[in-house]
Design brief:
single chain, alpha+beta, Immunoglobulin-like, Coagulation Factor XIII, Chain A, domain 2, 4 domains, six-stranded antiparallel sheet, 37 strands, 40% strand
């Protein structure tokens, strides 16, 4: 027999992409999921493949120094009886000189970029030919993959969906902001693989790092560390919280991960300026979804940052309600992290499922700024000794807050109030633009027997149940929404649930604030020395907050923190109430003109009314949406937008992909920043 000569071959990127749900990454390269067969076609010249005469074998290699013992190299022959455990290749069919071969990786294979070589031999003569590269991803559809997720709608949301919502605002006024994850957009896959190859563990020991890339726990920990740059590790984002973002992009201005990841690559893996918690979490979510690990961004309201691990956050206020003698412990209005779905074979049974990963640099873990993966079940059960970083996240959702009021003579009074941490933990619902509350996955109902057991296990004092029914009660209420550019009222509502008259001093103070709990100058204040409360009566005391007083100091987080202090003259007891008021931005209106169809022009009309009393200068609209826009579209308005006038422009789009898509808009100006809007658009497929 003459030698078998390989003439051409086809990796069938398009067909394999469809079957492996990676088609949206384009058909320039072969991208497949582990444990699932993919088909390639080989064409020989001169003569066809003859079974029994010709031997075919493949070689797959990943990483810089592939070796079989590390699982980064595999050599396997084409056979009718493949082994269960490793890579295998089976002939599917043979036509005129064309041979279809089905290749399959084991469901625990290392993910990453592979090279594929074919070896043909007839008798003693053999030749080998490199036939291309492919990328192997995790496979949430395969029951034996450690990231297997049973529900198809969940797999669509948490692996395939390229757009979503992230919850922000405050516990009493939850807002959602649109986000373009864009994990299948051009170049994002190669940037994510590049991120794995710039991580310090890879640079220290390339072979060991590549051999561990079959484990989503390991990958999650690497991604959590690489999204921030606090370890001199060429991480993706630099964090900043001081409201000075002039030498970069304000964290509030981003509307997607694609722009951030592309900038990181373009500037030689220099950190992109600037991120805050939801930006870190969203970029990590993009990387994890891109690699095939089901992931979602979650938001915890009133999130504790407990630096000394005692599960108590001490806040010190002076008699006017101003923060005094700052402890490093903080309460963030909200804090975002990522949950990724995976099995935990490294732990005892019972901890598979959602794992919390927090890429925002807060505390070091094993010497590196990363956090997780921590099984959400372990957080709920108070199993603080398990890997990784459970005590820190347990505190974020369970710490107690104690307010100390420091009086003029330096003495401290402990407030009878303890505001509660870990509220309304939220994520986007599967397949819908609504909020799913997942607080119950992190903690048992407050006051329940189970909660008590968990706190005992976690060596934490059970919350002293406050005497709710007797004494004085203080709350801060808002009559209606607070809109940017307008004055509004807040009310201190005091209840005397005793049968004696009480006389008190009431201090009400409002300050502009950032979402991480820091406060700015005062923007409203009232001090009533003698408030008389009849038995069993309720009193409402209004405080008017004027736009002219908050205008200059409102941060881009749009928050005003209102603190009320009620001091009873007779006993000297102090009650504290705190409320974060979210100042609402104007709505961005998006109109779609024309019939939305793939590869056909569409016009979006985007507008916003200036609600302020002054003109807006340097107005910019930024628009993006996977499958709708070609990257980011930026529109700078030439003229200032006068008070109550409309900023408006039209954008031509040619949707590249069919299906449900989100068009996302961010508006920036000198006085109004980080205004977000989105519109769902259903794109009809191109008629054949």
């Amino acid at each position: 027999f003459a030698d078998l000569v390989l003439e051409t071959w086809d990796l069938q990127c398009e067909r394999n992409g469809r079957e492996h749900r990676t088609a949206e990454m384009g058909c320039q390269q072969l991208v497949v999921r582990r444990g699932q067969p993919f088909t390639i076609t080989l064409h020989f010249s001169g003569r066809s493949y003859e079974e029994g005469v010709d031997k075919l074998a493949f070689n797959v290699e990943t990483g810089p120094c592939p070796i079989e013992t590390s699982g980064t190299r595999s050599h396997f022959a084409v056979t009718d009886f493949p082994e269960e455990s490793g890579w295998n290749a089976v002939i599917q069919q043979q036509d005129e000189g064309a041979l279809s071969v089905s290749l399959c990786s084991p469901p625990n294979a290392r993910v990453g970029r592979y090279s594929l070589t074919l070896e043909t031999s007839t008798g003693y003569q053999g030749t080998s030919c490199h036939i291309g590269d492919f990328v192997l991803l995790f496979n949430a559809w395969h029951p034996e993959d450690t990231v297997f997720l049973r529900d198809e709608n969940e797999r669509r949301e948490y692996v395939l969906s390229q757009q979503g919502l992230i919850y922000q605002g405050s516990r009493d006024y939850i807002t959602s902001t649109p986000w373009n994850f864009g994990q299948f957009e051009d170049d994002i896959l190669s940037i994510c693989l590049n991120l794995l190859d710039t991580n310090p563990k890879f640079l220290r020991d390339q072979n060991r790092d590549c051999s561990r890339r079959n484990d989503p726990v390991y990958i999650g920990r690497v991604v959590s560390a690489m999204v921030n740059c606090n370890d001199e590790d060429r991480g993706v984002l630099a964090g900043r919280w001081d409201n000075n973002y002039e030498d970069g992009t304000s964290p509030m201005a981003w509307i997607g991960s694609v722009d951030i990841l592309k900038r990181w690559k373009k500037f030689g893996c220099q950190p992109v300026k600037y991120g805050q918690c939801w930006v870190f979490a969203a970029v990590a979510c993009t990387v994890m979804r891109c690699l095939g690990i089901p992931s979602r961004v979650v938001t915890n309201y009133n999130s504790a940052h407990d630096t000394n691990g005692n599960l108590i956050i001490d806040r010190y206020l002076n008699e006017t309600g101003k923060e005094d003698r700052r402890s490093r412990d903080m309460i963030w209005n909200f804090h975002c992290w990522v949950e990724s779905w995976m099995a935990r074979p490294d732990l005892a049974p019972g901890y598979d499922g959602w794992q919390a990963l927090d890429p925002t640099p807060q505390e070091k873990s094993e010497g590196v700024f990363c956090c997780g993966p921590a099984p959400v079940k372990a957080i709920r059960e108070g199993d603080l000794q398990l890997k990784y970083d459970i005590p820190f996240i347990f505190a974020e959702v369970n710490a107690d807050v104690v307010y100390w009021v420091v009086q003029g003579d330096g003495t401290q009074k402990k407030s009878t109030h303890s505001s509660v941490v870990g509220k309304n933990i939220s994520t986007k619902s599967v397949g819908r633009d609504s909020r799913e509350d997942i607080t119950h996955t992190y903690k048992y109902p407050e006051g329940s027997e189970k909660e008590r057991e968990v706190f005992v296990k976690a060596e934490r004092e059970t919350r002293s149940l406050r005497e709710e029914d007797e004494g004085l009660h203080l709350k801060i209420k808002l009559s209606e929404g607070a809109n940017n550019g307008c004055d509004f009222d807040v009310f201190a509502v005091i209840n005397n649930s005793t049968d004696t008259e009480r006389v008190c001093r009431l201090m009400l103070c409002a300050r502009t604030a950032s979402y991480n709990g820091t406060v700015g100058p005062q923007c409203g204040m009232k001090d009533l020395l003698n408030v008389t409360l009849e038995p069993w009566a309720e009193k409402r005391v209004p405080l008017r907050i004027l736009y002219e007083n908050y205008r200059e100091n409102l941060t881009q987080d749009n928050l005003i923190k209102v603190v009320a202090l009620l001091t009873e003259h007779q006993t000297g007891d102090v009650i504290v109430a705190v409320r974060d008021v979210y100042i609402q931005n104007p709505e961005i209106k998006i109109r779609i003109l024309g019939e939305p169809m793939q590869k056909r022009k569409l016009v979006a009309e985007i507008s916003l009314v200036n609600p302020l009393t002054a003109p807006l200068n340097n107005c910019v609209f930024v628009v993006e949406g996977t499958g709708l826009t070609d990257g980011q579209q930026v529109k700078e308005l030439e003229e200032p937008v006068e008070p109550q006038a409309v900023a408006k422009f039209r954008l031509d789009l040619v949707p590249s992909q069919a299906g449900l898509r989100k068009l996302m808009v961010d508006f920036e100006s000198d006085k109004l920043t980080g205004v977000k809007g989105y519109r769902n658009v259903i794109i009809a497929p191109q008629p054949n």
